[in-house]
Please model this.
Amino acid sequence: MKALADSSVTPPVHFAESYNCKENYQPQNLCVVTRPRPFTPEEKVKVLQLINDLPQTASPMLSQLLQPKNPLTFYRHQFGKKRVNSRSFRRNALIYAWVPSSGHPSLHLTDLFFAAVENINTDFTLQHYFLLHEMCHLFDKKMNDLSLSTEFLNFYDWEMVDYGKPFMLSGVETRNQHWQLSAISTEDVEAFREQIRELHGLGKNEEADRLSFEFGQKYGHPGSYSMTNPRENFAEILTSELLDPQRMANVPTDVRLWLARLLASKYP
Ligand SMILES: [Zn+2]
Model:
């Protein structure tokens, strides 16, 4: 395995001892839902180890997030923001990134994150995958929303579509909008979602995972999760490129060249 750096060098990370529930206002009380607590010494070692394990090719990107003068803050919670058991939503319960409108971004790890020791290949586990995926979101933000740039949106023909009529919210006209892959038929996506729901309902999670992977591959993505919206698209292709390139086999060449350029960039 190619280590990110000399593992005797500790990545610049701050482990928060407590969590201010009032800081990040959400509809739910986050302390009731997520039950924050400090990291154990073993968990801190584990997180540092995971970061050090990440491949050298990720370092230009990671150096943007892990700056000695501005360490990345990690919080420990028992649960994720959404307490869901469905495997397809497992990411929500494992780890999430938080980027406040002002202040520092942070990463939030849960009990399920520390349990996700399953290998994705000989070099990496799900923990590496999920950690890097969330870091890709932070990187995307740091780079002024690369995933929403016209160049990126055009790779897969992302478009923002309205559904339902605009409505008034606190005196402001508000639209129901979502991202859609305009090159893919809505019926195909609906049929896929229905099949996934059915498989989860039957407890056939592995089959659902395989179907998700195949559906993504069919449309040039590493998996179906990459087809959720441009942000997940960006995080999934970058994470797969770095940790599990086999999943990139059907990804268009121009996307892979773009990623190669991105990873080779020198950032100030
Ligand atoms: Zn994500």
